[in-house]
Description:
The structure holds two protein chains of two kinds.
Chain A (H helix, E strand, L loop, with lengths): L11 E3 L6 E3 L22 H21 L3 E5 L2 E5 L1 H11 L2 H31 L5 H14 L5 H12 L6 E5 L1 H19 L14
Chain B lengths: L18 E3 L6 E3 L8 E3 L6 E4 L5 H20 L3 E5 L2 E5 L1 H10 L3 H30 L7 H11 L5 H16 L3 E4 L1 H17 L5 H5 L3 H4 L1
Antiparallel strand pairs in B: 1-2, 3-4, 5-6, 5-7
Helix pairs in contact in B: 1-3, 1-6, 2-3, 3-4, 5-6
Amino acid sequence: MSALPRAHELGLIGCHICGLVCRDTQVADAACPRCGSALHRRKPNSCARTWALLIAAFILYLPANLLPIMRTVSLGDVDDNTILSGVIELWVKGSPDLAVIVFTASIVVPMMKFLVLGTLLLSVHRGTNWARAQRARLYRLVEFIGYWSMLDVFVVSLLTALVQFGFFSEVEPLPGVVYFGLTVVLTMLASMSFDPRLIWDCQDEDD
Amino acid sequence: MNSPITDRGQIDPALSSPLLICEHCDTVYRRRPLACGDVARCARCGAVLERHQRISLNMMLALVATVMVVFVQANLWPIITLSLNGEQIHTRLWGIIVMMWNAHSQVVAVLAAGTLFFFPLCKMLALGWLLIYARLGRRAPGFRQTMVVLHYIGPWTMSEVFVLGVLVSIVKAHLYFDVTPDAGVFAYAALAILITVFAGIDVRQLWDKIPDTEGAA
């Protein structure tokens, strides 16, 4: 046994909900004695669920970026903005620093989630030992920053509610923002259903 | 080894804590007392195992009460005011939600209502409920279910993202209009700070800190 024993080596299970350390009774439908949730050694069907949610998120991510998310009407002048054109407008006319924040939240973070979760899933399938500590850190990063992507959805909502002057000026949400909101929710669900324990489940050779 | 684990249904509270399993890689550790400011990290994957909890249950209850007060203000007061030709539009959270619903973006309205209103509200009410009973030295009715619900709604509260959203909206709207941040936005900023304080608190400690008196009887 290594210096850092893992739960299954000691016949233990940690409850995923409340964290209680339980003895692994090998019963199929064991429940946590403290919180009553089902006990699992690993999150059930972690890879399949994560793949499904990630692919669904990616499908919705295309219209989210290609379709406009917001329409600005000003004295009869209609202007449709996509996520990227909104960032560019902010960069050119407003403040470049906020443009960087919006760009990070709306474009970098979702793209990073697809790349990171995709990489994690592929490497788990291959059972590789490659860069495990770094992969674990990437996963924690994705979990931590994931929900900041909702930023643009809130901005569109706020502007819609704010700018309501009929013919003079009006902001309307367009379907892109709905797709984008769903993408964020699906990527959050995907990162929650991925089990980072799988990263460490291949053969322990180096420790 | 001296295992703290008992079979289903019987847990000795004194023994429920000496071991700790890393949530990210399943490594088993023996718990050590942490000094103020200490953070225990997993030696294998680097994830945080446990933080020293300097906030007592009473302080937590006070914090929850504060958040509730600020939350009410953040919802009642207008967040941003926009003026054009003497006409003024005040925006409140629920105004935004209703507006999005009517603008054929019901999905967004539901998301905003959930992540900015219902989930934060449920979280605070649930914590308040558990902590009020904790002051009386016992577990609240429905303790177990409430703790499980708290675990699930945890990641779905997004008030701090909204604060940043308000900032971006003000800058964007400022290109064309006369916008002024209203009292509500300061309430939201306070809320964001309080949420950050909350982020360091591990709600799971309530399992250990509020003993199960009925279960032992």
